[in-house]
Write a structure and sequence with these properties.
Elements: H1 2-16, H2 19-41, H3 46-80, H4 82-87, H5 93-123, H6 131-158, H7 161-177, H8 184-188, H9 193-199, H10 209-213, H11 220-246
Helix pairs in contact: 1-5, 2-3, 2-5, 3-5, 3-6, 3-7, 5-6, 5-11, 6-7, 6-11
Length: 252
């Protein structure tokens, strides 16, 4: 555990100095400001549309951060061969994987979630909106991004950077598209799709953007159940990644 925490602290410092991190953070800042302008340009329900744009921008930024930062943290170690030097010390592969994941999650929690939430609530402070639905939507976005990060680590262990990015993004799209109310029935009736859908986490249950835009508060029980489901998915993909990582040949 101590080894994983030390690696996570190193991962936090690596992420903070990453150029992609600063680009994504700049993107979300510009997107949030643009959301205010787009909401003001519409006729009627300006506040609702502003919240939609803001939460949508935050959602995209978190998912992009999960995928590209996960690839950057893990794939760079494998490609440069620096991981072999680290593993030559009394550091297990599981500790290395868990430390990298924990470090990225801490950055997502402390920067992407906390600062994004503060910015959104600050921009909406004069709009008279209810804060609880927005905070609930951001919280479940964070847990969804944690699942996507675990999926990214699983693919990073087994494939290259491009394949990992495409596979993680496809899993994200399927996790929303196939479980949405308008497509779930049509897809479940097709042969072979049940097996595929059983391997893909249901990410649509973390989508509270519509509820937040209308000011509808979700019950605490549903929030807890969604968080519990997220933890199960995270553990499942991280365990699968650790098992395959133990059997992977690492170039020195």
């Amino acid at each position: 555990m101590k080894q994983a925490l030390h690696i996570s602290w190193i991962a936090v410092r690596e992420l903070i100095y990453e150029r992609v991190f600063h680009l994504l953070f700049s993107f979300i800042g510009l997107a949030l400001i643009l959301s205010i302008l787009l909401g003001q340009l519409t006729y009627g329900e300006q506040t609702k549309l502003t919240i939609d744009f803001m939460l949508g921008s935050a959602h995209i930024a978190m998912i992009l951060f999960s995928i590209f930062m996960g690839i950057s943290l893990f794939q760079r170690e494998l490609q440069m061969g620096s991981i072999s030097m680290l593993l030559s010390k009394p550091v297990s592969r599981t500790s290395f994987l868990a430390g990298k994941y924990l470090g990225q999650i801490l950055v997502q929690l402390g920067v992407m979630l906390a600062i994004t939430g503060i910015i959104i609530l600050s921009l909406l402070r004069f709009e008279g909106v209810q804060y609880i639905p927005i905070l609930q939507a951001l919280l479940l976005m964070f847990f969804e991004s944690c699942i996507v990060t675990a999926i990214t680590y699983f693919f990073s262990v087994n494939s290259g950077s491009i394949t990992t990015a495409l596979s993680s993004f496809v899993m994200f799209v399927i996790g929303h598209y196939s479980f949405s109310s308008s497509h779930s029935k049509s897809l479940s009736s097709k042969p072979g799709t049940e097996i595929i859908l059983s391997l893909v986490p249901n990410l649509e249950i973390f989508n509270l953007k519509t509820f937040a835009s209308y000011g509808v508060t979700t019950s605490n029980l549903e929030i807890i159940l969604s968080m519990s489901y997220a933890l199960i998915c995270i553990v499942m993909f991280l365990v699968a990644a650790a098992l395959t990582f133990h059997r992977k040949d690492i170039l020195t």
